[in-house]
Amino acid sequence: MELSTIVPFIAGVFAQSILLLGKRLTYKDWWGMPRWEVRARTTAT
């Protein structure tokens, strides 16, 4: 794959994951929580 096809793909996946995380966590919660707590909350259904 060329860089011109990889970059938009990664950007799209990254944007989707940010939107999905945004529904569960607020911006303040995301940066205010320890990393293990973020991981526990994002992996939990």
Account of the 3D structure:
With 45 residues, the protein is an all-alpha fold. The protein has a domain at 18-45. It is 82% helix and 0% strand. The chain contains 3 helices and no strands.
Brief descriptors of the model:
single chain; about 45 residues; 3 helices
Quick recap of the structure?
With 45 residues, the protein is mainly α.
Multimerization status: single chain
Q: Percent of residues in beta strands?
A: under 5%
Main beta-sheet strand count, sense and barrel state: none
User: What would you call the structural class?
Assistant: mainly alpha
Count helical runs. 3
Low-confidence stretches: none
- What is the average per-residue confidence, as pLDDT, rounded to a whole number? 71
Number of distinct beta strands? 0
Radius of gyration: 13 Å
How do the SSEs run, as a string of H and E?
Answer: HHH
In angstroms, what separates the terminal alpha carbons? 34 Å
Share in helix:
over 70%
Estimate the global geometry from the Cα principal axes.
elongated
Present the secondary structure layout.
Elements: H1 3-24, H2 27-32, H3 35-43
